[in-house]
Description:
- This protein is of the alpha+beta class.
- It has helices spanning 36-48, 110-113, 121-126, 130-137, and strands spanning 2-6, 8-9, 12-18, 23-24, 27-29, 50-65, 78-92, 102-109.
- The protein contains 4 helices and 8 strands, in the order βββββαβββααα.
- β3 and β4 (23-24) form a beta hairpin.
Amino acid sequence: MVAYAVSIEDGRVLLAHHASSNWTLPGGRGEHAEDPFDAEIREVAEETGCDAVVERLLGVDSRVIPAAEHTIPGGPEHQNVGIYYQVRITGGQLRPEPNAETAESVWTPIPKVACLRRASLDTRLSGRSKRECWMSCRSI
């Protein structure tokens, strides 16, 4: 189980840049016996330096992540269940994660998100191939 934060303010979305060089929504795995709601608040603080409140559940996605898309080289194919929450940032300042798992977090204008190297979920949900997504952002 992985909990993700969707935070949009003034036409910008909060994204985290992981050491694997992919951009993604802030979030991560829950600790043993940790509620996904609580995991999301903790992960936002750890990855971004910001405080957040969960406003509502947006949805749940379950998929198999192929070994080729795994963030750990040589990692196995695995089942991922993502829980997506709409969150509002209430305080703190953006900063890199102390253990360097997240290199930086930034508020990104929504039209520019298509041009970033991202985790694969948004490509899969759009119904377009990664190449089609990449080609469409070249004109921005």
